[in-house]
Amino acid sequence: AKRAGYGDYAIFDASMHDSAVARLSLQTDLRQAIERGEFNLAYQPIVDPATGALFGFEALVRWDHPERGLISPVDFISVAEEIGVIRQIDHWVMREACLQLSKWQRQFSNPSLRMNLNTSAAEFVDPEFLKDLTKTMAEFSLLPQCIEIEITEGIFLHPSPEIASTIAAIRQLGVRIALDDFGTGYSSLSYINRFSIDTIKIDKSFIDDVCGDDRTRAIIDLIIKLGRTLDVAVVAEGVETKDQADALTAIGCRAVQGFYFARPLSINDATELLRRSME
Ligand code: C2E
Ligand code: CA
Ligand code: CA
Ligand code: CA
Predict the structure, then answer these.
(1) ipTM value of the model?
(2) pTM, two decimal places
(3) Residue nearest to atom 20 of ligand 1 (CA)
(4) pLDDT digits (tens, 9 = 90+) for 204-239
(5) Whose Cα sits closest to atom 13 in ligand 1?
(6) How many CA atoms does the CB half-sphere of 38 hold within 13 Å?
(7) Ligand 1 binding pocket, CB closer than 6 Å
(8) How far is Cα of residue 272 from the mean position of the Cα atoms in its chain?
């Protein structure tokens, strides 16, 4: 709110003040969160809707704040990007998720079990990212095709030659690339054409309408056919109901992720799911 007459100074009302202070303390806390071991990972299964077969997991970071409790990545990833600590967070996530993947692969004699990792635009083109990836795979003896790096169209907002060369270098390693939140950006189809991509993850906003809206279903159907033609895997994200799962199966979708099948799980719950999927 501004008061007229005394020049252009702004007066914070109590709620603005609170949120500015909250944001500042969030920044300070975020810088210390890694050393204090406040992050942990949830693992959300990616499954075949027709058989329930488990392909692997997406690693999703959680922040267990000492005073505020669990904070969603939606609320801190952008802050971490702004203050430049996203590299450290995603570095930690990569090591933690790859260590867990190697444990599960050995425990269940399944060397093809997969792990999906999210990235942020800022770290993706950092040469350290590629080094980390190579080192981590070697350290945990993981086959490169078991790791899938998820990128969003956001990284193409400021196109640079480094993006294309990073994607090429990752695929050169044999590591897979997924285009996340597919359909929410501006020219999704052109990215598939210009960059080699292994997987498309159809955004939840389309899946929400798969039962109710014929046009949306036609679009999903088209993406799945396109995937088959171009040899690109397609994952439907955010499947919440049996009707959605059935509709997707009918269209020929072979990989889904969502609360209907499983929420993001703790290590113990994910291990239990793996055990049951072996029976
Ligand atoms: P995302 O990569 O699109 O991840 C999927 C999000 O959808 C997750 O939210 C997941 O819990 C949620 N989800 C999955 N199935 C369903 C469903 O059926 N219904 C609904 N309503 N939601 C579902 P989450 O874990 O809160 O993560 C939010 C976003 O934060 C992620 O979106 C990703 O962009 C980012 N993120 C998470 N972990 C990391 C990380 O380690 N590094 C980076 N850079 N970003 C991360
Ligand atoms: Ca993702
Ligand atoms: Ca997504
Ligand atoms: Ca997202």
Answers:
(1) 0.97
(2) 0.92
(3) 238
(4) 999 999 999 999 999 999 999 999 999 999 999 999
(5) 238
(6) 20
(7) 44, 60-61, 72-74, 77, 90, 93, 118-120, 180-181, 238-240, 257-259, 264
(8) 22
